[in-house]
Amino acid sequence: xxxxxxxxxxxTFGAEDLIALTDRxxxxxxxxxxxxxxxxxxxxxxLIDGYLAGRYATPLATVPDIVQRWTLDLARHGLYLNxxxxxxxxxxxxxxxxxxxxxxADGRLTLxxxxxxxPAAPGGGVKATIGQLVFDARTxxxxx
Length: 144
Known about the structure:
It comes from Azospirillum argentinense. This protein is mainly alpha-helical. The protein is about 55% helix and about 0% strand.
């Protein structure tokens, strides 16, 4: 399941922005390069999964709104990097997304999705045995 789609990007940032970021045709075709967008979305999802994999089952079966927003901001940042570099607002959104991803990975921000099962505790308790003593008063003698 994809965390965000081309339609989500268009709905959030507008088609004009995506055309400006992805249209590399000469002369310009005034269309969105869907392959570039798909690559950016895939990269964003991979980054998110990398942060969340230790705490959540990835890829996520359901996509909370915040995860979709992270995907959109990361994908847009990636598209800007391939053009002329991100604007201040795009860079700020990217850094905020990374902060939130770290919080989610560390458990300070909780997502309403299936988690990763905690490792099973080993069974039994501690067992210690004492074997035959190698050194004692008889084997060492009296060294006073």
